[in-house]
Specification:
Helix content is about 50%, strand content about 20%. It is of the alpha+beta class. The protein folds into 2 domains: about 25-75 and about 135-155, SH3 type barrels, CATH 2.30.30.100; about 80-130. A 6-stranded antiparallel beta sheet has the order 4-3-2-1-5-6, with helices on one face. Strand 1 and strand 2 form a beta hairpin. Helix 2 (about 80-100) packs antiparallel against helix 3 (about 105-125).
Length: about 160
């Protein structure tokens, strides 16, 4: 009996051990803008060559020549944080509406939903202060492009 217990624990441990993947280097999300200030692409950086930035968005990759890039902004926009907070607060409130048993509970839950949605959006807004997005400007300068490439490939603490 003890032998089977040890065998099953060993199988469970080694099955989980072999199922682990080596962690991949985290890819940085950027928003890419042209010289008119229009956003031309956004996604996670896959590769930076001497004259091309390759991004991945979903399952497709986007290749952008460095000559078309005026500046990049790292991380997601501030409105993303606000939207995530709003959705979190709204979903908590919607759950309380679903669980309400009577008209009073429904009314109370509806008011709670509005308050939680407001609170969630304010928390999302306040979280933008800690985001520390970086803006990289190029305007065709090869030295700045090289500095950006080195900064993206340097180890992060």
């Amino acid at each position: 009996m003890l032998k089977y217990l040890f065998l099953s624990i060993s199988l469970f441990f080694f099955a989980n051990l072999s199922g682990q993947e080596v962690p991949k280097k985290s890819k940085i999300f950027v928003r890419v803008y042209n010289n008119q200030g229009d956003k031309i692409a956004k996604g996670k950086i896959v590769e930076i060559t001497e004259n091309t930035l390759i991004l991945k968005k979903g399952s497709k990759t986007i290749s952008i020549p460095s000559s078309e890039i005026t500046y990049l902004i790292s991380k997601k926009s501030d409105s993303h944080n606000i939207l995530v907070g709003l959705l979190a607060g709204t979903s908590l409130g919607a759950y309380s509406i679903v669980k309400s048993k009577n008209a009073f509970g429904f009314a109370f839950s509806s008011i709670t939903t509005m308050l939680l949605a407001t609170l969630g959006s304010w928390v999302g807004y306040l979280s933008t202060a800690f985001k520390h997005s970086k803006i990289y400007t190029f305007s065709g300068d090869a030295a700045k492009w090289k500095g950006f490439k080195e900064d993206m490939y340097s180890p992060k603490n």
